[in-house]
Amino acid sequence: IGILESRDDVDLVFTDVQMPGTMDGIKLSHYINDRWPPVRLIVASGAAILEESNLPTGSRFFSKPYDSHAIIDAMAHLLSIRKHG
């Protein structure tokens, strides 16, 4: 969150569901979407299975282990939406 507060060049955040502290990746994705709507989001987890409908609209979820090519494709797609949409 500190990086997003101090910079305006972050276009995409990739986070895990499980994080240290009180905020998990799902809460983080909603917080980012509410505060910085243009930032695209990818959420991953090896422990949790969740529907993309639990995430902000336009976010992507990947369960671990994930295919790195699928992540790269998702990032490219989300960033193209960010620039052109």
From TrEMBL:
Stated name of the protein: Two-component system response regulator
Biological processes annotated in GO: phosphorelay signal transduction system
A Pfam cross-reference name: Response_reg
Keyword annotations of the record: Phosphoprotein
Recorded superkingdom: Bacteria
Species of provenance: Rhizobium leguminosarum
Positions where 4-aspartylphosphate occurs in the chain: D16
Residue ranges annotated for the Response regulatory domain, each copy included: 1-79
Gene3D superfamilies: 3.40.50.2300
